[in-house]
Design goal:
The protein is an alpha/beta fold and 511 residues long. 32% of the residues lie in helices and 26% in strands. It binds adenosine monophosphate.
Length: 511
């Protein structure tokens, strides 16, 4: 039985030392090099004596981050990928939550620690990769390791205004890699074209499914997702066979009609997740690549990427919704009604998940953990956790699970998971705003801010917001109101705002 994801690395490096494990536009690492570099970094960090503790890894889109993550794991600790370009306020919040004992990055990242005033150890990656190895120390760490120990923390938007760090164990990731291999039967040496940034859990599948199957992760430069002209030639040059991408990325290629001149010739499997894939986008891809296998994956970060899958096995017309299918083996999905009872046959219910895929919870956040990870109401006999996703689903007449909607104000915008409550919490702290409310215009794909203030101050709001939140969380359209509409309970009348500004009933139906 596997206990540690590093066993996959050691196996792959033993069998295929010269095979490329990770590459980007300018660098490539063989399995032997990934192993050597991660053991060197691991030895360097392990000398601190810290175990089962967080280490921040400043990320962008570079292949060297893969040995950086494994290096942290060799040291007996867990990694926390953090985008080096995050606004400092948000960076501070993450550091406050994690209290890391070290941070890893390029030489220029040391300045970030100064800017946020953290006196913790900074490890420069290039230097760490050449450090001397301490085999006995690493062996001792692996001997004491348990599969329930944490592997990484990935942050998601939090409705209280503070992002939540989802803590995931080795066991859950091993389960994910095993299930993916069993269900989707990857071949030896597949090439995974990585689209998702390493601080998104979609990338966890690229890293660990590739590792498990001795494949190659080819990191696609982010510029190619802004201007996708070069993207398909790049996929062909790198011989990509698998895409595990966010819906928004597949949509982008459709919008740019990026498959007209050339198609990805080596592709065999396309997995997508994060949102409902519009049928016209699927049809476009299917028309251009009819022999590829398409899979809709569903699930939140809290259950280690995905709990259900649907292998597209029949034609759909444009008005139909693609099912999210059925649970992975070793995973149960329950649909619960408001009383926590199983929803009646054919009725909608909240999607709740049970199994090894459940993460350990939110790091140093017992209240939010308690709220989302609850005792299974169908089991009064022993402690057993369910994760309540906040998503509603139901079974269709074929017995396939279908995603219906969110229960709260969480949205997906340009592939990012955002709690509108988090945006509102930041805005509410701006003294010049009297009242504000954020809504999502799904048809136009815009975050809309309605605000009441003494004077119109859109420019100031946008400028101030960028100090606190990543760009993708900032509103795309601002509505200045002299008087915010209130309902009879004195609360902001969101239904009225939606109806009046975002297209009323038609919009409601789309929601
Ligand atoms: P994240 O934690 O960023 O992966 O976001 C998880 C949320 O994205 C889920 O709770 C759903 O609301 C949504 N989601 C993920 N996959 C799908 C899918 N295949 N179809 C519809 N919504 C999805």
């Amino acid at each position: 039985m596997r206990c540690n994801v590093l066993e996959y690395l050691e196996e792959a490096a033993g069998k295929h030392p010269k095979r490329i494990a990770a590459a980007d536009e300018t660098q490539a690492y063989t399995y032997a090099e990934v192993l050597r570099n991660s053991r060197a970094l691991g030895s360097m960090l392990a000398r601190s004596g810290r175990r089962r503790s967080p280490v921040i890894v400043f990320i962008d889109r570079a292949a060297e981050l893969i040995p950086a993550f494994f290096g942290v794991v060799y040291s007996g600790n867990f990694y926390v990928p953090v985008d080096r370009k995050l606004p400092l306020q948000r960076m501070k919040q993450i550091f406050d939550t994690m209290e890391p004992f070290a941070a890893i990055g390029r030489a220029e990242d040391a300045g970030i620690l100064e800017q946020i005033n953290r006196q913790i150890r900074f490890v420069e990656l290039a230097e760490a990769f050449t450090a001397s190895e301490e085999p006995e120390l690493l062996e001792e760490i692996q001997r004491r390791h348990l599969d329930t120990d944490p592997l990484y923390t990935i942050f998601t938007s939090g409705s209280t205004g503070v992002p939540k760090g989802v803590l995931v164990s080795h066991r859950s990731v091993i389960d994910l890699a095993e299930q993916f291999e069993t269900v989707f039967r990857f071949e030896d040496g597949e090439v995974f074209a990585n689209q998702a940034p390493f601080d998104f859990d979609v990338s966890v599948k690229d890293i660990y499914v590739s590792l498990k199957t001795a494949g190659t992760v080819q990191v696609v430069p982010s510029a190619m997702f802004r201007m996708p002209k070069k993207l398909v030639p790049y996929l062909n040059e790198r011989k990509a066979t698998v895409l595990i991408w966010a819906v928004s990325a597949l949509e982008l290629l459709y919008q740019f009609r990026a498959l007209e001149k050339e198609t990805p010739r080596f592709l065999r499997k396309i997995f997508f997740s994060g949102e409902v894939l519009p049928m016209r986008v699927l049809h476009y891809w299917q028309e251009k690549l009819p022999d590829v296998c398409y899979v809709n994956l569903y699930g939140p970060t809290e259950i280690t990427c995905n709990c259900t899958y649907y292998l597209v096995d029949r034609p759909f017309d444009d008005t139909e919704v693609l099912p999210i299918g059925k649970p992975f083996p070793n995973t149960e999905v329950l649909l619960l009604d408001e009383q926590g009872k199983p929803a009646a046959k054919g009725e909608a219910g909240e999607i709740c998940v049970r199994g090894t895929c459940l993460s350990l919870g939110y790091y140093r956040n017992p209240e939010m953990t308690e709220k989302a990870f609850r005792q299974n109401p169908c089991n009064p006999a022993w402690p057993e956790k369910l994760y309540a996703t906040g998503d509603f689903g139901k079974y269709n007449e074929r017995g396939e699970l279908v995603f219906l909607s969110r229960a709260d104000s969480q949205i997906k915008h340009m592939g990012h998971r955002i709690e509108l409550g988090e945006l509102e919490a930041v805005l509410n702290a701006f003294p010049y705003l009297e009242k504000c409310c954020c809504l999502y215009d799904r048809r136009k794909g815009k975050i809309c801010l309605f605000y009441q203030a003494k004077t119109e101050c859109g420019g100031e709001i946008q400028k101030d917001l960028q100090q606190y939140l990543p760009k993708y969380m900032c509103p795309n359209k601002l509505y200045y109101l002299q008087q915010m509409p209130l309902n009879k309970n004195g609360k902001i009348d969101r239904a009225f705002l939606k109806h009046t500004y975002l297209g009323g009933e038609e919009h409601e139906r789309e929601l």
